[in-house]
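re: that chain from earlier
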Amino acid sequence: MINRLCPYTDALYLRVRDGIKTQERRPMKRWLFYYPSVGDVLPVGEVWRVGKFVKNPMLLVDYRADGHIGDSLVNIGANEYDRQAMRALNMLKLKQIPSIDWAPGRSPLPWRSPIKMPEQVARVWVQIVNIRIQRLLEISEEEACAEGYHPQPAGACHPRGWFFDLWFERFGWLDNQEVIVYEFKPIEKPR
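^ sequence. v structure.
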């Protein structure tokens, strides 16, 4: 299983990329087989799609968050290339797309979830620098800012209120349970 940081929205992805979001809280789930450890290097998932099949193992990748469409050439590896090509061929067979040959920047393929992003396609990587347990409602204003809060126009909520809204949107509940706090820093893509 590939573990990755998935910031859930394009705006939060950009805040990780820009070094504004440096913390991630996750519910403690006793059934998970893998929790990242201090020092682990993780890809940051973002919404993506195959932009164009070039030649195995190369393809163009479209990234939705910052609008890089049809200009990111990636060596995805032969196995992943074949997996993505089979997916496109199946969609063609089901008439969900008109063709598998299209101009760069004109991909008919649907956007894919950050959870489904192969690590070869990831542009941003982070290293876990600290892990701790905290009660959800104990988050401070500074910690809410490290979760990616960005001041909004007049009338917007404070950082903690913004974070609680985000948590409720993600998980559908808001109680004072224990959560795992991952602190991380952006790093260069591993080779």
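The chain has two domains: 10-44+123-187, 48-118.
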